[in-house]
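Aim 2 progress. For ECF transporter S component, the working sequence is reproduced below.
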Amino acid sequence: MQKLAELMLQGNNLAYLGSGIIGFFILAYIVYNCLSYSILRERYHGIRFTTKNIAYITMLVAVSASVTIVVSLVAPVTVFPPVRIAIEGLMVKIAGFIFGPIVGVIVGLITEIIVMLFVPSFIHPAFIIVVICYGFVSGIGASFLRIGKGNNWIIVAILNIFLLAFAGVMYYIIDVANFPDNTINMAGILMSKEVFKWVFLLSVFLCVIIVWIVYIVGTVTGKSKKLNVFLPIMLFATASEYLVTALISAWGDYGFLGLETGDNDNGYILMFMSRLVQAPIKIIGNSAILYYTYKAVSPLIKSDR
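Predicted structure tokens for this construct:
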């Protein structure tokens, strides 16, 4: 187990593992829906590519791509991949949350291709994977919108289980791995393994506290109906931040910055750490933006479907 843990923390292996696992679930979900539509056509409740749905999907792709392109002309800072991904990922997540995982994946892929054609920026496979995963994870979050309706405690429980399980797995991997002098070399920066563990745990536990604050304040102030939408959005925003942004986007970040990754010098871990520090703030910020965007866009689409 020690060698496996050390292997996971070498190079970009965590990013490869995260991409592979999410890719497997995307493929499995597509196969499942194809079989369901073929065998149980009359009882199939998944996405149907009707003319109207295709028009809405095209509209979301156009909005996502055009907003990113226009912003890049006004604010050149968007040529930096992390900024570009954050902007174009907004409508990709909304598309997935409204139409489901398959549409989220399609919108993410097409949007990224269009943006790459018109916005001069650093191209890395990690960022393409990140946008696709945003669409899939947000689509899965739509299922919890139905499951947790009227039962907000279910979403809170799932959020806590996810965060604690993710923290437990990563803590175990870091703890078991053996490093020379118990230090990790991150692009020339030496850091104790214990510090790495506690930074990770602090990030996750801070998110747990934020979840409980949102739930308690919303319940006490009688905002349960708003929580019915906000908590599922917070769930997929949290999953996206840790499973996609932290694990996979860090792979592209270190490549963009030209950091080295080797046996004794791991630029990926440095970027992973920086993403962990940002995670709690980004989760609450993204959740608020996505909530109000969803409340504005969703009625326009659902009222006409």
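The beta strands are 183-186, 189-192. This observation will guide construct design in the next reporting period.
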